[in-house]
Model the fold of this input.
Amino acid sequence: MASIGHVAIGMAAARAWVGNDATRARLVRAMVAFSALSMLPDADVIAFAFGIPYEAPWGHRGASHSFVFALWITAVIVAIARRAGAPPLRTFICVGFVALSHGLLDILTDGGLGCALFWPFSYERIFAPVTPIPVAPIGLYMFSGRGLYVVMVELLLFAPFFLYATFPRKKRLVESTR
Done:
């Protein structure tokens, strides 16, 4: 994926996490944080610089795309957020959704080697039975016709998440208790 879908999921989860009564600054900070979380598994591309092959357990779309990694990162973030006073259940649901979504979205792509969703129990890379999302070219190849095609498809597929995240809503009406 070109990360557009991952960012859209992160932004939508941030909107759900902060609620309708948040300030614009708090919403933007949450969207940046949740979007970074949504892309965290792709930090595994640094493995290439260390000579770790794509197909290795710690290669691209390996362990960092697994359910175990998603649950671990969720537990860490929820523990930190809880100490900061964030609502624990809502934080768990939103962070867990974003963390789990990365690998699940990537198995919907039509290229690469698949994702090791069940690492460390299985090193098998899998794809979904249907792969409607075109795989994005890596590196500077993203600035090609194929890269533009991937961006356009992702913008179309994830438009509902962007709209939910950014469309203005009326503030909730609070009844007076007079």
